[in-house]
Amino acid sequence: MSFFIRGRKENTAKSSALQNINKKKVSKAGIKRAPASGGALETKLKRRKKHKETNEEILSDSEIDSDEAMGKVNGNKEDSESESEEETAQEKRLRLTKEYLQQIEFEEADKNEVDGVDGVDRDAISHRLREDVLEQAGKLQRKVAQDYERPLLADVRVFRGHKLSVTCLVISPDNLHVFSGSKDCSIIKWEVSTGKKLFVIRGGKKGTEETHKGPTDHVLCLAMSSDGRFLVSGCMNKLIHVWNPTTCELVHTFKGHRGPVSGVTFRKGSSQLFSASHDRSVKIWNMDEMAYVETLFGHQDDVTSIDAMNRERALTSGGRDGSARIWKVIEESQLIFHGHTGSIDCVRLINEEHFLSGSDDGSLALWGVMKKKPLKLVKNAHAESPGNGCQVTTDEAKWISAVAALQNTDLVASGSRDGSLRLWQCGEDFKSLTPLFKIPLLGVVNDLHFASDGSFLVAGVGQEHKLGRWWRLKEAKNCVCIVPLAKRTSR
Fold this sequence. Notes:
It is a single chain. By secondary structure, this protein is of the alpha+beta class. 25% of the residues lie in helices and 32% in strands. It has helices spanning 2-29, 33-85, 89-112, 122-137, 394-397; strands spanning 157-159, 166-171, 177-182, 187-191, 197-201, 219-224, 231-235, 240-243, 250-254, 261-266, 272-277, 281-286, 291-297, 305-307, 313-317, 323-328, 333-338, 344-351, 354-359, 364-368, 376-378, 402-405, 411-415, 420-426, 433-440, 444-450, 456-462, 479-484. Strands 1-28-27-26 form a four-stranded antiparallel sheet, with no helix packed on it. Helix 1 packs antiparallel against helix 2. The longest helix has 53 residues, at 33-85. It is globular, with a radius of gyration of 38 Å. It starts with a helix and ends in a 7-residue tail after the last strand.
């Protein structure tokens, strides 16, 4: 629009100059001619002005139209080029499907030691695809428990390094390392193959939280992200520490809980962290931003354990409130389960639709998310003492202090202080729980974890329970035990 303004200014200046000249002529020629010649001149000037403005406007509009036309032509060319380069949604799905099938073929070829993908059994690929669909739906249950042999006591490896009871464990995603936490406020990184201590994060004295880079109180829980970027520890002093698993250097410290942090877990395939505390709350943290997200309330007592898988959900146990809960974060709702008569101290997800829990009343329970009562409840699961010199009463011995599940299979494990570690087989549709075998293990089993490939089971053992000193087994050793799990050879 500026050209209109400029054109009007120039015409106004010219008309004012001509009017001044006309006035001079009128003053020289006389008053009688002034109106006629002045009016004629003004009329002529107005016609010239109008003609010039019209020409200027037409020229400017034509220039704009030509520029817009050129822009549209260029834009259409760019759009057509980009559309030709982009693939459609259907083409993308087809490409990803082909890549996925090719990946499965190579994996099956490596597994069966076949030269080339042409020799791969198509039934094996079909079976693999069916399992993937069930796993995505959270209903997969591989039948593997019957394939395992009874572990020999001589094959159990013991890693010693903590001065006090081992309270928690976590296995790295590649199954090469184990991290253990203890009442001595330290965290140790172990190499599974050799049992060597690769790094020790030493604990500090109470009251030195601001100066000491590390735990200054009992380490109660550990978790590791599925990509191996973060190691997280929760302590009795209400703090959550984030570590670099490779260098064991402190990355960040989260504050917010008002009670001891009893559990931490990562949502698989993401940087979302869930934490549970004795302040009866569950908190969500974003590890990419190192930021607090939100707090979930519902439990009426200390939250004692927490677990998560792929879905944006968390499973927790509420101790003395007698409930286990599944928190649906997106839906902002929760599922509540009741079945134990005592405090629920430990829970583990088997798949997205089923989980296992243990209580201080000595019972083990299998659950389905569609029912509020257990699918199977085994009472006094650890009541029988194996007679290994552990002098305890039946009531003391039956407390289930730790459970573990080999995810998406029918194999689970439980630990107590009765002197044995027990493995169980889940029945069809998780409606039964059958004991497989017992592994002698002196001490209080405070934590259990299966390797992701099922090659071993790791147990954190101590002379005392991780939350108190109600009893102390002097004969036991504070250690990490690696129990190898070997499958039967086919004949």
